[in-house]
Design a protein that fits this description.
2 copies of one chain form a homodimer.
Chain A: H1 2-11, E1 13-15, E2 19-21, E3 29-30, H2 32-45, E4 53-57, H3 61-72, E5 76-82, E6 91-98, E7 103-110, E8 119-127, H4 131-142, E9 146-156, H5 161-167, E10 172-180, E11 187-188
Parallel strand pairs in A: 4-5, 4-8, 8-9, 9-10
Antiparallel strand pairs in A: 1-2, 5-7, 6-7, 10-11
Helix pairs in contact in A: 2-3
């Protein structure tokens, strides 16, 4: 997606440890004009699919998932992050490790909102090691929900996330795929 | 806002401790048709104002703030929640207490994204005790940013939040104001 790549080049910041900071337009301050284009692009990428819901995880995925859901006219579900497992039986849960925060968390979705009758696109702002994405796949699988595919805004293609997800048999559509950030220079696939 | 009130009556659940559960359409699963109407309604309520950004806090405020920002064609900023104060000087920070989680957290906004040239509407899904809202006001005030007003989806008018915000001198626009939830019966102001 040309507009997104241009924005990453002009406004993204490469920090030590292969961190790409895009908090001026995607995950702290959000450029809503760009966001609307991102929503349309995901609709194009999955235009032939039957989709009943969009699944994401708080917090940065929510705005992207919301505009995508608008394009499909379906609800969004955002998985919640918690520190401990529920005692009750009301939620699908999966543990995931956050490399950004260097700790594990429990991802949860209420059993009321995902079922075997649903077909979801899983949306997230970043794909790096694939931990969050794999947890969402796990939750959808627990619910018996069909996973139409995975939609990612920015993929760090030099990390293992895409391979892990493809090895599970799912289609990954990333709007910008970054091959390298060496010497602070962003190169796309 | 009639559509919202009808949705609260039909799909909201009153739980013990004055908790109103609206996770089927607002803060876990999100009804995007309703959300689009909410965005339009906030635009109507603040139609005469100059607005440069919409300010909210993760996670449940993000989708509401995003559709509101679309209607004003301005960026969204969502404040982040952390456990500790930053060592650096890059963010405006304010401590807030969460009654839902029964603990305090630090709300943060990067200094890059709010300034004295900005005029913001502060948006949130709920107003109860006003803690999150007061923290956002504090952050905007630190930045010298003009606060146009506060936009709330659901206000628990039997709690102290509105009074606290109005006492600070700000206009509060709530799309549904709940007077009472006694005996599981929701009554609006």
């Amino acid at each position: 997606m040309k507009l997104l790549k241009e924005k990453i080049i002009s406004d993204g910041q490469v920090l030590e440890g292969n961190i790409l900071k895009v908090d001026s337009f995607l995950n702290h301050q959000i450029d809503v004009q760009l966001l609307l284009e991102i929503g349309k692009e995901f609709k194009n990428r999955f235009s032939n699919e039957k989709v009943t819901k969009i699944l994401t995880v708080e917090a940065s995925g929510i705005s992207v998932a919301t505009v995508t859901a608008m394009n499909f006219s379906v609800p969004v579900i955002f998985a919640k992050k918690g520190e401990s497992k529920n005692q009750d039986d009301e939620a699908y849960e999966c543990e995931a490790f956050s490399f950004t925060r260097n700790k594990s968390y429990i991802m949860k979705v209420s059993k009321k909102y995902l079922s075997k009758d649903d077909s979801v696109i899983i949306i997230d702002d970043f794909l790096a090691n694939g931990e969050a994405c794999k947890a969402m796949i796990d939750i959808a699988t627990q619910a018996g929900t069909k996973i139409v595919g995975i939609g990612i805004v920015i993929e760090k293609s030099f990390q293992s996330g895409r391979k892990k997800i493809e090895d599970l048999g799912y289609k990954v559509e990333s709007l910008a795929r970054i091959k390298s950030m060496k010497n602070n220079k962003i190169q796309f696939v």
